Amino acid sequence: MSEKKHAVEENANTGRWLRGTEEEAFAGVRSRKEGLTAAEAAARLDEFGPNSVSAPRPSAFIELLRKFKEPLVVQLMVICVLSFFFEDDETKKLLSTSLVGGMVFFSVFLSYFQESRSAQTVAKLQAMVKSTCDVLRDGVEVTVPIDEIVPGDVVVLAAGSIIPADCRLLQAKDFFLSQSALTGESMPVERVVLATVPGDVAAQECPNGCLMGANVQSGAARALVLATGRATQFGAMSARLVERKDQTAFEKGTKGFVWMMIRMMLVMVSFTFAFSAWRTGKVQDAFLFALTVAVGLTPEMLPMILAACLSKGARSLARLKVVMKRLDAIQNLGAMDIFCTDKTGTLTQDHIVLQRHVDVIGRDSEDVLRYAWMNAYYQTGLRNLLDRAILTRTDLDVERSCRKVDEIPFDFQRRRMSVVVDHEGDHLLICKGAVEEILAVCGQYQIDDEIHTMIPLIKDEVMEEYRALSAQGFRVIALAYREFDRSKEVFGTADESNLVLLGYLAFFDPPKETAATALAGLRERGVRAKILTGDNELVSRKVCADVGMPVGRVLTGSQLAAMDKATFDAAVLEADIMARLTPAQKEQVIRSLKAQGHTVGFMGDGINDVLALKAADVGISVDTAVDVAKESADAVLLEKSLLVLVDGIDEGRRIFCNIEKYIRMGASSNFGNMFSVLGAALLLPFQPLTPVLILLNNFAYDFSQTAIPFDRVEKDQIAKPRQWDISGIRGFMVWLGPVSSLFDYLTFALMWFVVCPAACHGSWSSLDAAGQGKFVILFQTGWFIESIVTQTLVVHVIRSPKVPFVGSRASWQLTMTTLAAVGFAVWLTFSPWVKGLGLDGAGLGPVYWSALLLMTVAYVAIAHLIARPRLRAA
Amino acid sequence: MRILLEALQAGRLFELTETSKKGAFEFLGRVLEAIPEIPDDSGVVEAMQAREALGNTAIADGVACPHARVEGITADIYCALGWSAAGLDYEAGDGKKVHLVIAYWIPDCQRVGFLKEMSGLAKAITQTGGIETLRKCETLGEVRHGLLDWVSLVQAAELPDARARMLRLTVKPPCEPGPGEAREGL
What we know:
The structure holds 2 protein chains of 2 kinds.
Chain A: H1 3-7, H2 12-19, H3 22-28, H4 38-48, H5 60-67, H6 71-86, H7 90-128, E1 132-137, E2 140-145, E3 154-158, E4 166-178, H8 180-183, E5 189-191, E6 209-210, E7 215-227, H9 233-240, H10 249-280, H11 283-297, H12 302-319, E8 322-324, H13 329-335, E9 338-341, E10 353-359, H14 366-378, H15 385-393, E11 396-397, E12 402-408, E13 416-423, E14 426-433, H16 435-440, E15 442-447, E16 450-453, H17 456-471, E17 475-484, E18 499-508, H18 515-524, E19 528-532, H19 537-546, E20 553-556, H20 557-561, H21 565-574, E21 575-579, H22 583-595, E22 600-603, H23 610-615, E23 618-622, H24 627-632, E24 635-637, H25 642-683, H26 691-705, H27 726-760, H28 769-798, H29 812-830, H30 834-837, H31 845-873
Parallel strand pairs in A: 9-19, 9-22, 15-18, 19-21, 20-21, 22-23, 23-24
Antiparallel strand pairs in A: 1-2, 1-3, 3-7, 4-5, 4-6, 4-7, 8-24, 10-18, 12-13, 13-14, 14-17, 15-16, 17-18
Chain B: H1 2-9, E1 13-15, H2 21-33, H3 44-54, E2 58-60, E3 63-64, E4 67-70, E5 78-88, E6 98-107, H4 111-128, H5 131-135, H6 140-156, E7 162-163, E8 170-171
Parallel strand pairs in B: 1-5, 3-6, 4-6
Antiparallel strand pairs in B: 2-3, 5-6
Helix pairs in contact in B: 1-6, 2-3, 4-6
């Protein structure tokens, strides 16, 4: 028994009503067999609230406080407190403390604002994809949103349904549940109707109960709702347990980057402190300087940039009719390089028409249609598109001459289902399903009105008809029957034997007109499509040919089942079509592809797709999918079209591309600064920037990047899957960092040997204390401006492999924020604050400004030459 | 069993000197192609081999029925029989050697007849004790007599196994049928 199972707390009422008699349960929830009236349900919705387990969102204040727990914010706050206690100069103390405080505020509030906006976006989007449930209201079966289910409702359940609340079974037929969300156990369990249950059985173990969080694997049932929302077992568990889920590749990548930067910062700060203290002899000043350098190296805007990018992406995707249920799946959508899908509804129109009903040798047969219609009409399980197609083909008058006796529901092991009908003195079992599965239980076949013995050679012969229909692109199912004596009332799967094969039903689902364009779009974007289907390989091959999808290797489920792991891995990677797969095999294929380093998307809409949807990096479903499939998906397409998905992939890549810009900028400029500051601490007899100036520099730099989420992305940058590439980021650090440092050293040399001696009328060693003071101010002003200019403008270099400003232009927002940051820095050196900050822009002279211009142009040019091949390779 | 009977009456039962499946196909294919009603160059052997690739045509107990299906021809079914006292290695599902090979030429329009012939043959094998009675025969003539006994037995037996009942259901009339509108019967 899993830990989760132990964690489920007994809900006293639910347990009592499950164990007691049916009458006690009805009395307990004030209901009856026909369910509630609409008015009663409305009143109870007011009384009990919506059927939802999600905890109320914490207040804005609590959410804001939580932001202060982020490691980057904690680091800034520690620095803020330390600078307050260690800074002697009151003006500087006030200024540096307010600047770091401002940064904390900037980071915390902006990221809070963005994240709450994202949460609202997700909530709004999720509301667009509502799960529903069939329920009796006023004695009639109606479909209502799951959150409107109330205690006392009688719900109607079939394969694919989500159990909407804690219920007691009133009627059940071969009813199997998957309770993995509740118990962690993946094997389905059977639930049956029982008069009473012994008193010592826990609610979750009651064989007549089905609890919220489970879903129906097979069978059909009616159940009385005992508890809803947070009063359910699942609700109680959700409230107590902190929901833990596996980290996505995106989260791992982000975390890895943050810790890489923090480690780098700690090393850097230790060395800076040591060198500066040794060179200047002022331990306290060196400590403060090292602390502010730490601030400069902190990517404190990362949470805000991430939240803003993902939230913007979710809104853009919603406009494209792609609802993201998990924001971080957006990046996976862009990173996806293998897209697996069932062919129904993606390559085909999902508008299935019953095209032919034929006997065993392919002659049109009205008998086949009549038997098929009765099977579809009387079945109460998951009524799929094939059933609907049969039912729309004709409408038989069965009320007077037929009575339903029993039903053997569909499941994915048998891949067939039967109904038993009382017709003209016999009990007629009518079975339809996958051709191989039906043939396996047929001992006879019917031709005209004659019934003959089936032998293997004849099976092969009649299979030929099936192959011929499949090769024409039809989806084919077989139909068989058997007559039983009227005395037999209860039927099970064992009765599906020695059946008479009657014929085949051929359905046609025409290929979508847009499928070929969409598949070509996926290919252009470096995404390989694979078909994972339960259908046969002949139909799949035909559909793929119709939509121009190149088909190399085709594999079947039985071939895959016979392979060892290494062969399996190689085969699934190579194959374009994998047909006749069980749900577990679909999942196995996805996991194998993931383990081979691919980012795998899976699109499915049926109960048989749920395992694969959960296993995929991005599970994609559609609005018309069964509830459990929608619940398991990361993204839901409001239009069942691959074209929408192609747009979604582009948007996912655009978003990640912008996130990468911040990360590349942060990594490369910080690495460069590390060299510059270390060198300065070692070479100069004074600090190259005061702590306050470092903070101001950082503040301007942060501000310039707030527009990154709004930046344009070049078309060729989204031409192939974009995945987290830490080695690529390291490449930017190792190459661009030293170039940035090189220009810092050039500035140091310019200031030390040319600008400062010229303005102060002498070299450092020849000056008195006042002269040296002026020398330091000019030196710091010069580097302050150069540092901001190069740091902020570099975003225009690393945003595209094209020539900055000429070949590719940033969005107006990003251009404005970077220019504003540069303008602010220059203005500051001339402003009335100059004296307080120790800046003197006016004293720099024309040599400096000319050199700055030249250096900026040279820096941008060299950085572009270095970045271009890396950006093209990215 | 009409087709088998006609073949026996037309003298299309031969001793197989070939010991391989391929050889038996080629021999019986040539016999079938020699029948005047079967068009020349109709590729009987190739068609039989193609069908064999889809699934073994040994039906059980030492009997195999390779067959060539042809499309677009309106004609009767024909068959030719080969007897191998030693038995052929036919790779049959039951692992037994095949002694009797009945090769059929089936125009597509005769598939019903072929399926019925196969069901009859299966019944004959079950009811007569199968190939064991034929294996005791010392001459081809005795084999022919044995096969004629099969035909007689099946013809005397009731075929088919059962008759299916038609479902007597009618299509529902439109919501408001006009006076005099007849229901469509099925």
